Amino acid sequence: MMRDVHVVGHPLVQHKLTLMRDAERSTQGFRRLLNEIGMLLCYEVTRDLPLEEIEIATPLTTMKAPILSGKKLVFAPILRAGMGFVDGMLELIPSARIAHIGLYRDPKTLAAVEYYFKAPPDVAERLVIVLDPMLATANSAVAAVDRLKERGCRELRLVCLLAAPEGIAHFHAVHPEVPIWTAAIDSHLDEHGYILPGLGDAGDRMFGTR
Ligand code: PRP
Ligand code: URA
Question: What's the gap in Å between 120 CA and the centre of ligand 1?
């Protein structure tokens, strides 16, 4: 089974990620950068979407021109931090539907605890792009994809900002066919399950809750 991990090395993504890692970055700046990187990662994760040709009329003549074909999209942010990607991605694909997946990590066990799940009724027929800036133990991403597969989803992709090697290994051990896009693969997890060097707690930094 293919195990795809795409590290997005684009200079704009790398530059913005460095700004986000800086402990001095304001809540406002952090949120804006996450949104901007969301837009750039959306560009990358949709790079291979299928096209079909349709006949159109320009002001001067007719031509066959490409448009998107294939499955429609659902963005599935894992709350809270996954919301940071949504606005940027919707700028590029305004017709996408949203599936909200509420999960928090139990601070002691690091298990993912579900508190909300709401997906469009036709989610199983769509390409689902799961969004979570942080792939640490991967308990959250694994639980989110489990839940989406329960609802019949078969074509899934995961977009994160930072991934730990442990998280990638765990995620692909459970969901080997789901490709991952990330801006960086960091060194390792600390004893509290935080990514090192990382950027801290993405949800808290984005919403100013600490
Ligand atoms: C954080 C982060 C991910 C999860 C990653 O969420 O936003 O969802 O941890 O860790 P994992 O790979 O070990 O599961 P958190 O539980 O802190 O919730 P929050 O986004 O609401 O702050
Ligand atoms: N969740 C975060 O927000 N940051 C980490 O480093 C790990 C999990």
Answer: 23
